[in-house]
Amino acid sequence: MSQVFHATFDPAAFEPFALGSVQWLRRPGDNGNESLSGGIWKVTPEEAPQPFDLPIDQDETIYIVSGHLRIDVKGGETLDLGQGSMASLSQGAMTRWSVLEPTVEFFVYS
């Protein structure tokens, strides 16, 4: 059966994530689809004081609601992402992320 997913930004709905915290709009596996999920990720420079490596395990599209991230793509470009910036990273990309300001990001894994 088909489902529709909706939510409102709710600071009380955030839960711990591998780094920072997340409010899920759609969790992996919802409606039988393991590869599609999305939500809002919050992270601060205090939670990620050093750049961190992040291999992209599935396609990821992001929109920066607020804040500032820098993503260095191995063998590619450096993405300097601030409020209103968007990026789409392909599965298999090797990246290094730097959290430069407290950041709120909307993401979709597919």
Describe the structure.
This protein has 110 residues and is mostly beta strands. Helix content is 0%, strand content 53%. The protein has strands spanning 15-16, 21-26, 37-43, 52-55, 60-73, 78-82, 86-89, 94-109. Strands 1, 2, 3, 4, 5, 6, 7 and 8 form an eight-stranded antiparallel sheet that branches. β5 and β6 form a beta hairpin. The chain is globular and about 40 Å long. The protein starts with 14 loop residues before the first strand and ends with a strand. The model has no long low-confidence stretch (mean pLDDT 96).
Taken from the alpha-carbon principal axes, the silhouette is globular
Low-confidence stretches: none
Give the DSSP E fraction (strand runs of 2 or more residues): over 45%
Taking the sheet with the most strands, its summary is: 8 strands, antiparallel
User: How would you describe the oligomerization state of the chains in this entry?
Assistant: single chain
Give the SSE order as H and E letters: EEEEEEEE
Helix content: under 10%
How many separate helices? Answer: 0
User: What integer is the average pLDDT?
Assistant: 96
Terminal CA distance: 20 Å
- Radius of gyration, in Å, reads 14 Å
Structural class: mainly beta
Number of E-type strands: 8
